[in-house]
Amino acid sequence: MVDSPDRAVHWATAIFSTLLANLTRDKLERLLAGYLEQLLGGDAEAARQVGRSMVENDFISPATLEQSISHLGEHTPVRPAQLAALAAGYAEALRDRALDQQEVTRAASINAMRRAESAVRASEAKFRAVFRSAAFGIIITSLTGEIIDVNESMLAMLGYQAPDLARINGGELVHPDDRAGLAELARQLIASDHDSIRVEKRMVRSDGETIQTHMAISLVREEEGSSPYFVAMIENMNEMRALQTELVRQSLNDMQTALPNRAQFLGWLEGAVGSKGPGTVALLQVDVDGFRGVNDAFGHQAGNRVLLHVATQLRTVFHDDVAKVARIGEDEFGVLINDPQDVPAVIALVDEFTASLEEPLWVEGHGIGVTTSIGIVARPARRGDAADLLRAADVTVGWAKRDGKAQWALYDQERDERDKLRYELAASVPGALEEGRIRVDYLPVRSLTDGTVLALEVKVVWDHPEHGMLCPDDFIDEAVGNGMIVRLWWWAFEEACAQVNEWRRVLGDRTPVLSIDLPRRLCQEPELVAAVFRVLDRTGLPVSSLRFELHEHLPAQLTEAQLEELTILAERGAGLVLDHVTGGNPGVEQLRLLPLTGVKFTGPVVHGLDEGADEIDEGASVTMIARASLLGLPLHAEDVKTSAEAARLASLGVQGGQGPHIGLSLEASAVAALLLP
């Protein structure tokens, strides 16, 4: 979970280059952190106050507001209603700021006129400068409405020429329905001790168009002998509201593709799962495959072309009569279909969209292939959960990507539940280690000729309080995916080294070798050799008692430097066994670079030797083992399930075996009972 300070750093990065305010980066981040606390903990009114505060702190560049709303909508859980309220508060504060400046102008004009007798020319020059240059309309009238003067902004606002107003009373410029109310306010102002009022009233342009205005009307009371008069500063609220509408539009749309953005899409989802929503919905998440590669290879302009191309095809297939389309991430699009006919109909539309991308997109002479991975979720809508619906789509598109990309996947709740459990387990590994719920068991590797224990393979098991005893297959793969495998592996490695060394003190050279899988992630450690020997130094286990098992595909995936680290381990006495050999090609050239000390078969190679096995499978197994024998290395087999498999493997020269027929994993105490006299 990202907290407010981190979000504030990201927001500051998004808007820093647009600021007109003189703020340090540190002060800006602290200010934005406060805004985020208000937004995430408050309602629409809190968001409105944030918008006003932004103006008060001189965040007055349109680009600052645009970037802020875009960033908040796409990267924070701020709701669309709050974004609209923020934009409204911002617009209101801008208006008030302008009016405050108008008050300063008004005061200057009034003071200038009051000093007319002593410095007429100077005062008139100053007042006229303000009068002419003001961006808002200024009109001066007598108490009876006779127009004394207007500035150019006022003439432009109402569409009049100066001579036209000589024949018009000021009251005639006000909408007929508002004249009586404004006249009454003027009488109250004259009768009171107040100098000014603010009011919203309609006015009528020369072409008959009605405009909503905000008026700041001041009564100027001159010294005795001079008649008082009104000075009114008038702002066109139609323009202000048009600006506010545009700000809201920008807050809900993606400027690059002209599609609705994530904030608006989330609003659609919330409406779809409401009590008045459709009966069913289909949600599609469309991810552009290899988008970062396109940016890196051809530049961001090419990447933008790809996004526009995908957006265009989505709009064509999923047009307004069919669905709603939005850009919901950097390279992600969302499609919401209300009351789809059925799932096959949705899939047909997906296939039509996929087919529309088959032709390459030509950018500056490069024919760029564009493919997408698509997650499809179809379910009942009413009283559902928008966040869960979006999560399901994200999970499903992840399946499509992991299964090879350029395809669609359909949401499967059972698969999702299994995945969630595995993710939960992998993320909980540190806590389980701290609570002592994870332990190291040992799988005996026995001689297929005399049953002697040749090696003990490390098997990490987890005594889970809810799910019972978990084997490595239940959580190791996800621990590799989220990086927890590093901590877990080093813990298990040191535990096992210490335990085997205890047995070695009694058994001496008769102690079975300690065997442990070495994942690819551990091979990427920059000082693997040094780290291994630090553990060996702490536990006292000699390196000759250690054997690392490498998946058959691992050598082909390693860099030259990583292969060198493994070679150093082998040269210093550790064994290297090629594991999980199933009959494929494990990368012959890479195998020659590693000083292997053994090969371990599994799967079809082992089961093809069982009694009653298919003749073709049996022949392939025999051939594979015979070819491996040419390496002159000890051969081993895992997952040996029957006595027939064990006997046939032994006859082909395979020395060691493990699996259900040989024996199950044992706790350390059971191993001690097995090995020690």
TrEMBL record:
The lineage of its organism: Bacteria, Bacillati, Actinomycetota, Actinomycetes, Pseudonocardiales. Pfam families: EAL, GGDEF, PAS. It comes from Lentzea fradiae. Signal peptide: none annotated. Residues 123-193 form the PAS domain. Residues 279-413 form the GGDEF domain. CDD domains: EAL (cd01948), GGDEF (cd01949), PAS (cd00130). InterPro entries: Biofilm_reg_signaling, EAL_dom, EAL_sf, GGDEF_dom, Nucleotide_cyclase, PAS, PAS-assoc_C, PAS-like_dom_sf. Residues 197-249 form the PAC domain. It comes from the Bacteria. GO terms for biological process: regulation of DNA-templated transcription. Residues 422-677 form the EAL domain. This is PAS domain S-box-containing protein/diguanylate cyclase (GGDEF) domain-containing protein.
